[in-house]
């Protein structure tokens, strides 16, 4: 995993911070866990904490994030895992994000 942010990672972070006025954002490039070239930006996990999620069920929070990142999802981002919480939920949580499972090679291998 690289410590430097790539262009796609930075774009995702900036959109989530500015459009959702997020209180906390983590953008984790998980591409290294998959069979992609070194430095790829194809698989991401995002952790987003925003007051804009107040009153929204989880599915609507995910839809909102997917809509904000539609361009990235249509242009190279292959997978997006989303953790979307309100500030209250985040404060009451342990603030730990579960690791994603290892890649199984696609097609359920």
From TrEMBL:
InterPro entries: BolA (IPR002634), BolA-like_sf (IPR036065), BolA/IbaG_stress_morph_reg (IPR050961)
Pfam family, one: BolA
Domain of life, source organism: Eukaryota
GO cellular-component term (any): iron-sulfur cluster assembly complex
Residues making up the signal peptide according to the UniProt record: none
Family: Belongs to the BolA/IbaG family.
Protein name: BolA-like protein DDB_G0274169
Organism: Bombyx mori
């Amino acid at each position: 995993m690289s410590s430097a942010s790539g262009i796609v990672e930075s774009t995702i972070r900036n959109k989530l911070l500015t459009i959702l006025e997020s209180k906390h954002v983590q953008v984790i490039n998980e591409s290294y866990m998959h069979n992609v070239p070194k430095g790829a930006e194809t698989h991401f996990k995002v952790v987003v904490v925003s007051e804009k999620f107040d009153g929204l069920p989880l599915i609507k929070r995910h839809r909102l994030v997917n809509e904000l990142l539609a361009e990235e999802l249509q242009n190279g981002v292959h997978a997006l895992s989303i953790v979307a919480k309100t500030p209250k939920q985040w404060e009451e949580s342990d603030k730990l994000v579960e690791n994603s499972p290892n890649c199984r090679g696609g097609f359920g291998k």
